[in-house]
User: What shape does this take?
Amino acid sequence: MALKTLKDLFLDELRDLLSAEKQLVKALPKMAAAAANPVLQSGFEKHLRETENQVERLKQVFEVIGETARAKTCVAMEGLIEEGGEIIEEDAEPAVKDAALIAAAQKVEHYEIAAYGTLVTWAGMLGHKKAVTLLSQTLKEEKATDDKLTQLAETSVNPAAARK
Amino acid sequence: MALKTLKDLFLDELRDLLSAEKQLVKALPKMAAAAANPVLQSGFEKHLRETENQVERLKQVFEVIGETARAKTCVAMEGLIEEGGEIIEEDAEPAVKDAALIAAAQKVEHYEIAAYGTLVTWAGMLGHKKAVTLLSQTLKEEKATDDKLTQLAETSVNPAAARK
Assistant: This one.
């Protein structure tokens, strides 16, 4: 049986998320290159460095629970990134494309907020205090990124798109 | 040019979400059938009826903005549902599978929270007041579903999974 205990499930979800974060590390430079708004572009670049750090943090979680850091293809993130790729390829007004890129990025952030939220809860139930600390740190970062994207959309990107 | 204005983008996102909700209508009965916990099972069934209603509400949004209700395949939701399908097929302890089903469902809810949040903002900027009301109503429901899933996980499903 593949998922016999909550520990098995926790590990399975960690592997899914490691794949998700690694996929994002490859996708974010393309999102940055496609952005016209300089604040959005540097935001994606900053989030790339943060995501690289989150990959390392996930590897630490594997370490503290005594498991090998191995990724398991996250098909949901594949879909989310494919959706982002469609926007990148789209023939669009730059300001409108920026608004679409933010929408796609916020869907990615929400995927991660749900995933890390679940992992923090499970880590707590399994008594992995160090893992709770590490995962909570990333959860906080993902929420902050989502908030920053909302702010950028509302103050600058959406109004520019609405003028088109 | 496919996305020349914010109106084009709003319409594109509406079509994506119509596809996403329709996919969910097909997936939820399978999630309900795979759930062992009776509260979770009836929760999925209740959310199915709510989702059917959300499809109708989306069609009303198309109507109030004077556009034809047409879906455009949402690849992100395809990925999310495929992930849910993997869990359904998984050989797992029933209580552990329930915890996994909740995690998958919360990722779906978060996708929708991000999507409806964006749509409410764009509808407001475009001056579609009736659309704002309709979309906000669904956004509220999605958040409530996410909260209910968290509560069920914490009070009953996770503790049962942790005993495995």
